[in-house]
Structures are given as C-alpha cells and as structure tokens.
Amino acid sequence: MSGKKKYTVPIMLAIITMLTFLIVVLFSRVLLDGQSLKTERGQRLASSYNYCILYATALKDGSVGLLEADNEEARMQAAKMLGKLDISAGECGTGVLFQSGTRTGLSKEDAMLAASEPIQKISVALAPIGASGEALTQEERATLTAAAASADKLSGILGAYTAPTGADRFRQMQAGVDWVPVAQDFVKALKEAAAAIG
Question: Which is it for the CA torsion 35, 105, 120, 77, positive or negative?
Fold first, then answer.
C-alpha cells in the first residue's frame, strides 16, 4: 500500500482551482453587466438633461420670435419653436426632473406632479398666442416677455451642470453626482415661470 500513489489531493486542487476561476469569471461578468446598466441609465439621464436645455432654448426663441415677428413667415417660425416645447418638456419632465424629485425623497406621484404641472401651465398659457394671425395684444406681449425672461433664468440654471459625454461621467450622472440640485432648482424656476406666465 505504501508504494501506491494517491491522486485525491491533486484532483481536489484542480477542482478548487477551476471553481475559483469560474467564480472570478462569473463575478466579473456581474460587475460588467452592472456597469453597463449604470452607463445606459446615465445616458438616458444625460439625454433628458439635454431636452431640458432644448426646452429652455425653445421657450426663449419662440417667445422672442413671436414678439419680434413682423410677418406671417416669422410668426410661423416662432410658433414652430414653441411647438418644440411639448416634445422637449415630455422628455425633460419624465427623465431628469422626475428622477431628481425621487432622489430627494418625493414619492413617484409627487415627483411627477412637481415636474409636469408647471410645464403644463406654461404650455396652456402659450398655446393660443399667435394662433389667430392678428397683432399681439398687450396681455399676450406681457406673457411672451415673461416667458422670455423665464427662459433666460432656466438656461442660466442649466448652465451650472454640463451633461456628460463619456462612460465614466454617465455612471456618475446615474449615481446623482452634481446634477440633482441643479434639476431641483430648475423645477423651482419652472414653478416661478408658470406663475409669471400663466
């Protein structure tokens, strides 16, 4: 019996080595999948943030355009800019503004309401302006002037944060680094704008 070789220990070492390798590979895979998911969510948030910038730009350009329009073509161009408000507002409100609300402790319903209510009031107030094709009334001019001033304030707030373009920054955005207070300030300014415009 003493001359017989035992293979138990080498086989166990081989099995332990293979299991360790398998665990490392699977754990790496899980980490990479998690990182990819965070990057994707960050990209969606960055896109939503850019829609907020587009919203402020469209509000400014449309309002000023209607105020300065001296012919039907200029009025149509300005109305087209104001038409972009609904598209950009939807993406902005359901993305960055909603997420900033939930990350600051609001319920999902309250966060959605805080984001969508002022946007809706602004849209309702601006929708009929310039539709008749007649000269603007004093009240319409005051509304458009307030909208342009509010758009400047909104753009200034959004300028405090630059939307990311790289994978690392996308993951930071998904984690809520730097942009949540900016988005909350934007929501507050939207409420003020809705009160001034409507």
Answer: negative
Alpha carbon distances (Å) from 95 to 66, 99, 101: 29, 6, 10
CA 84 to chain centre: 16
Q: How far apart are CA 26 and CA 172, in angstroms?
A: 25
Token reading at 142: 């005051």
Three-state DSSP state, 3: coil
Give the rounded distance of the alpha carbon of 185 from its chain centre. 13
Give the single-character DSSP code of 95: I
55, 155 Cβ separation under 8 angstroms: no
Q: Which two tokens stand for residue 23?
A: 């665990």
pLDDT band with cut points at 50, 70 and 90 for residue 187:
very high
Name the residue among 69, 97, 78, 61 with its Cα closest to residue 188: 97
Q: Is the pLDDT of residue 2 over 70?
A: no
CB atoms < 10 A from the CB of 11, how many?
A: 10
Whether residue 125 has pLDDT greater than 60: yes
